[in-house]
Design goal:
- The N terminus is likely disordered.
- The protein contains 34 helices and four strands.
- The N and C termini lie far apart (136 Å).
- It has five domains: 84 residues; 219 residues, no CATH class; 175 residues; 38 residues, no CATH class; 288 residues, Mitochondrial carrier fold (Alpha/alpha barrel).
- Strands 1-2 form a two-stranded antiparallel sheet.
- By secondary structure, it is mostly helical.
Length: 1063
């Protein structure tokens, strides 16, 4: 393009405009579009021209020569003309300035003259210059327009080229992606070809392996070097087919490979069994022919079998002694295929074959034990030496068996622990091969125990305990906590533990329990119950003197306190010490300790009762305190563990929790609030495991006796001290002599401190009531007996009551009874008796059991609040009875519903139900169990709570009032009074709850569906009142009250007398 220097210089001109305003005109070059910033009209400042350097010329002295300015014909010509003109002007101006400097006057004249002289020339020159510049600008504008068009064309070309480059780039990228895809496909095809080639191995391996395993003489394969490799290849093929189920014929090939694997494993089992059988037959034959010494027997029993390893061959030995094929063991985290089950099936067969092959040792052990018995002069009298010799021999046999097993199998599959979850199928139950091998050794332990049973049949506890102590000392205690135990001692310890844990310890526990049971049947003599007497200034009893004499003669080390103890206490102390003194931390059962302590406590209480009848309560208390303290001290000194036993009992805490919640919500008397807890089973007692502690029972009795004993002497000494100091002193001396005669120094001091203390130990003697499962069972049993009596006495009256309540065809009770007698016969009065006979018996059992349980809970609560007044208030008696009624309603609701349906159904061919079960089934079919069988349950709960609250309240009030009035114990009230008070309570029961019973009977005899009259309890109340008035709620009260007297009397009489009998 053009060079920019030609238009970079623009001369400055001044023009005069008509406005008189002078304006400087400055020409600028428009910046190229390529150099302009996007979106702006800014024009950059022009570049300053490079000024020419002119050399100074000589100033002419004459006027300038005339010149004619030539008009430029082109841009370059214009440039030359402009430069020449400017140069000429500059020279003229320079010459004139030099003249003016020399002559100022002349300079002024010259200026004026020159102005006038050149005025026209200047105007013409200016005009020409103006025209010149105008043409120049026009040409520049045209040139710039052309330049701009060229620039736009260049930009369009560049944009087109940019689009082309982008297109080429996108095509290049697409081509690159296609090339990469082609390369990936090529790689995939190469890998696929390699994989196909690899996978074909798993298919092609089938035929040659099938020929080898099914060929004649294939049994010799187990000794070939590649046999184990063949097994591993089969495993790999099965794994491959298992991992690729979508491959062609994978299931078929998998089945055939598994079949071939089972064939190969069968060869292993056959080879092992045949070699084992050959060795066994050879050893049995040699042992049968003649007797051998112990060394020869060991060589036969174990040396021959150790040579089995050489017969099997290296592959089979490696299979049995390494863990290469122990699939599924504890450290095996590899996912295994379906072949694992086949291997473990083989392991089971090998194990059974091996255990079976060792059975020939059992009769040989029996023969050896018999030989020991014959060689011992008297096994009965020399049982200790004889039994230890037998045990030692059997333990050696167990050690040899364990050593042989480890030599044959070493760390192979049969000596490893497995994870049952990794082994599917029935093999999981037999996954612990080590335990089964140990059980095989334990056969000899069982043989030993069976051999020693005749000598242990006399149930001699000390003989068994001596044998146990020797085993614990010799084998268990020696290796306990010692890591550096040699192999024979460790095997002996394991066998000894099996002998102890599975045989001797259970036998000793049973003997201890049997010995404890004998304490219950101990019958004391007069000497055992003899009171202390004074001998030589000391208080001694006859039995104490005899015991001391015998101890002196026999050198006994029994302490003086134990020597004067009750015989059952002596036996209990011996049993506890014998059971607790173990040289090995064996698992001690709380049942054994519980029976010993419990039976001892029971025997002491029975003896104390005898002493109380013959010598008074004070001596009985001294007797109990003295003997119970001995047992308590034994627990402390010998650190005997807790004597506890698990027992199932009924827990009523869920019921009390519901009652508390209803009470907090003020819904206690709302029958609808009981429906949800009843459906959820929250009103039923829960069966829980109760921990019975015999030591706590004993301590409770001890605290009770100590408290009574201390209170008696405290009151005696204190009352005498108020009246007469001498009498108080005499009472103190008497008390001290009594303590000296029966207790040691520490006990005497403790009792004196207790006596002197103002604390009366009310808190320690709080829980005096018998409780637990035995007490609950007694309550339930007595209640069941009362329920049966109730049904048999009240059924005739009950059927008359129901007929009157549910029908209007009888004018009164007498007419109803006569009609039933005439039309249905006398047996009709016992219609539907089977259901109440079973159900009411259960109901009354629950009533009395729940009442006494609630009474005991309330008493415990009262004791915690006020230990001096543990008795129940009459409101609490009502609450306990209401609780019994609510608990009973769960059973009585459906039972009475069935009974009412059976009693009100037509007689003869029109009968609706064929019996109680048929009635239950049909009622349950109507709207389910809750709306069908449990119809009227809400009003039943209200009736039961009100009825039995009043029932038990009335009876307890009458009984307590009679005992207080006559100043006798409750147990001394005669039975006829119990029956009379029970009858009165029955009358009060029905008077308080009869309207609810009427509504219940109407609802439970109502029809179903379209025949149903009452929508609910409130609707039944409303319709009954509307139809019959207030008298409708008391209809049938006469026969009910007539029935209530004998029924309730018989119930309470039977229950009370039954409780007295079983207690």
């Amino acid at each position: 393009m053009y060079d920019d220097a030609w238009y970079s210089y623009v001369p400055e001109l001044q023009q005069k405009k008509d406005g008189g305003a002078s304006q400087s005109v400055k020409h600028r070059r428009r910046e190229s579009l390529l150099r302009q910033q996007n979106g702006t009209n800014h024009i950059s400042e022009p570049v300053d021209p490079i000024l020419d350097i002119y050399e100074e010329e000589q100033i002419p002295k004459g006027p300038p020569s005339p010149t004619l300015t030539r008009r430029a014909k082109s841009y370059s010509d214009f440039y030359d003309v402009a430069r020449a003109y400017i140069h000429t002007e500059f020279q003229l101006k320079k010459s004139q300035d030099q003249l003016d400097v020399l002559d100022p006057a002349r300079r002024r004249d010259n200026v004026a003259n020159r102005y006038y002289l050149y005025e026209d020339d200047l105007l013409n020159a200016t005009q020409e210059e103006y025209l010149l510049y105008r043409d120049q600008l026009s040409l520049s504008e045209q040139h710039l327009d052309n330049l701009l068009e060229d620039t736009v064309s260049a930009l369009d070309l560049l944009a087109t080229l940019s689009d082309s480059f982008k297109t080429v780039e996108s095509q290049s990228r697409a081509f690159q992606a296609q090339c990469e895809n082609l390369l990936a496909e090529q790689k995939r095809l190469r890998n696929l070809a390699d994989e196909v080639g690899t996978n074909l191995q798993f298919y092609s391996y089938l035929e040659p392996l099938t020929r080898r395993l099914n060929a004649p003489g294939s049994g010799r394969l187990v000794k070939s070097d590649d046999f184990l490799g063949m097994l591993l290849d089969l495993n790999a093929c099965i794994d491959f087919m298992d991992q690729h189920p979508d491959y062609r014929d994978s299931a078929t090939y998998k089945t055939r490979y598994i079949s071939l694997l089972e064939r190969a494993l069968t060869l292993i089992q056959t080879a092992f069994a045949s070699n084992l059988r050959e060795v066994t037959d050879e050893v049995v034959k040699q042992t049968r022919d003649k007797e051998h010494s112990e060394t020869a027997e060991y060589a036969l029993f174990y040396g021959k079998f150790e040579s089995l390893v050489d017969r099997l061959g290296p592959p089979l030995v490696k299979f049995l002694t390494t863990d290469e094929f122990a699939f599924g063991h504890c450290d095996d985290h590899v996912r295994r295929g379906a072949y694992v089950l086949s291997y473990h099936f083989l392991f089971n067969q090998l194990l059974e074959e091996y255990i079976k092959s060792r059975q020939f040792v059992v009769p040989l052990v029996q023969r050896k034990l018999k030989k020991y018995a014959t060689s011992t002069p008297s096994p009965e009298t020399e049982f200790k030496l004889f039994s230890r010799r037998c045990v030692q021999y059997v333990l050696d046999i167990c050690h040899n068996e364990a050593k042989l097993t480890e030599d044959i199998f070493q760390s192979g599959p049969l000596m490893i622990e497995y994870q049952p979850e990794k082994i599917v199928g029935s093999v999981a139950e037999k996954s612990s091969y080590v335990e089964r091998l140990q059980k095989g050794f334990a056969v000899h332990i069982t043989t030993l125990v069976n051999f020693l049973k005749p000598y242990l049949g006399n149930r001699d506890l000390h003989r068994v305990a001596d044998l146990i102590g020797w085993l614990e000392t010799m084998y268990m205690s020696a290796s306990e906590g010692n890591d550096d135990v040699d192999r024979p001692l460790e095997d002996h310890r394991k066998a000894a533990y099996i002998l102890l844990n599975e045989h001797l310890w259970p036998l000793s526990d049973s003997l201890f329990i049997a010995a404890a049971a004998e304490l219950e049947h101990f019958k004391p003599t007069e000497e055992d119950l003899e009171l202390p007497t004074i001998v030589n200034g000391r208080t001694k009893s006859k039995s104490q003197r005899v015991s001391e004499n015998s101890s002196a003669q026999n050198g006994s080390s029994v302490s003086g306190g134990v020597s004067t103890a009750y015989p059952t206490v002596k036996s209990a102390i011996d049993l506890l010490i014998l059971y607790n003194e173990s040289r090995f931390e064996r698992p001690k059962k709380g049942d054994v300790l519980y029976e010993i302590v419990h039976q001892t406590t029971e025997s002491l209480q029975r003896a104390a009762t005898t002493i109380k009848r013959t010598s008074g309560i004070l001596n009985a208390q001294v007797f109990l305190i003295k003997n119970l303290i001995l047992i308590e001290n034994l627990f402390l000194t010998h650190e005997i563990p807790d004597s506890v036993r698990q027992s199932a009992e009924l827990d009523f805490s869920p019921f009390w929790a519901v009652i508390k919640q209803l009470q907090d919500r003020r819904q206690l008397l709302n029958p609808l609030a009981y429906i949800k807890p009843l459906v959820n089973g929250e009103l039923l007692p829960a069966v829980v495991d109760q921990v019975l502690d015999a030591r706590k029972e004993m301590e409770r009795v001890l605290v009770q006796q100590i408290t009574g004993f201390a209170k008696y002497w405290q009151s005696k000494i204190t009352s005498n001290n108020r009246r007469n100091t001498d009498e108080a002193l005499k009472a103190s001396v008497e008390f001290d002599k009594l303590l000296e005669a029966n207790f040691e120094e520490n006990t005497r001091v403790a009792l004196w401190r207790m006596l002197a203390s103002e604390n009366k130990m009310a808190d320690a003697a709080a829980d005096l009531e018998d409780h637990g499962l035995t007490r609950t069972l007694k309550d339930l049993f007595a209640g069941a007996a009362g329920g049966i009596a109730q049904v048999l006495l009240g059924q005739p009256f009950d059927i008359v009551k129901v007929r009157l309540q549910t029908s209007n065809q009888y004018p009164n009770a007498l007419e109803a009874a006569k009609s039933i007698w005439v039309k249905e016969g006398p047996l009709a009065f016992y219609k539907g008796t089977l259901t109440p006979l079973i159900g009411i018996g259960a109901c009354v059992s629950v009533q009395f059991g729940a009442f006494h349980e609630a009474r005991r809970r309330i008493e415990a609560y009262n004791i915690s609040k006020n230990p001096l007044s543990p008795g129940l208030s009459y409101s609490q008696y009502y609450a306990a009875g209401a609780f019994a009624g609510v608990a009973n309603s769960v059973i009585s609701g459906p039972i009475e519903h069935v009974r009412i349906r059976l009693q009100t159904q037509p007689h003869g061919a029109g009968r609706l139900y064929n019996g109680p079960l048929d009635c239950v089934r049909k009622l349950s079919a109507h709207e389910g169990v809750l709306k069908g069988l449990y119809r009227g349950e809400a009003v039943t709960i209200i009736r039961e709570a009100q009825a039995y609250g009043v029932w038990f309240l009335t009876f307890e009030y009458l009984m307590n009032a009679d005992a207080l009035r006559n100043k006798i114990d409750r147990k001394e009230i005669p039975s006829w009074k119990i029956a009379f008070y029970g009858g009165l309570a029955g009358e009060a029961l029905w008077l308080a709850s009869y309207p609810f019973d009427v509504v219940k009977s109407k609802m439970q005899s109502d029809g179903f569906g379209e025949n149903q009259k009452y929508k609910g309890m409130n609707d039944c109340f409303r319709k009954t009142y509307k139809a019959e008035g207030i008298r409708g709620f008391w209809k049938g009260l006469g026969p009910t009250c007539l029935r209530a007297m004998p029924v309730s009397a018989g119930t309470f009489a039977v229950v009370e007398m039954t409780m007295r009998a079983i207690n």
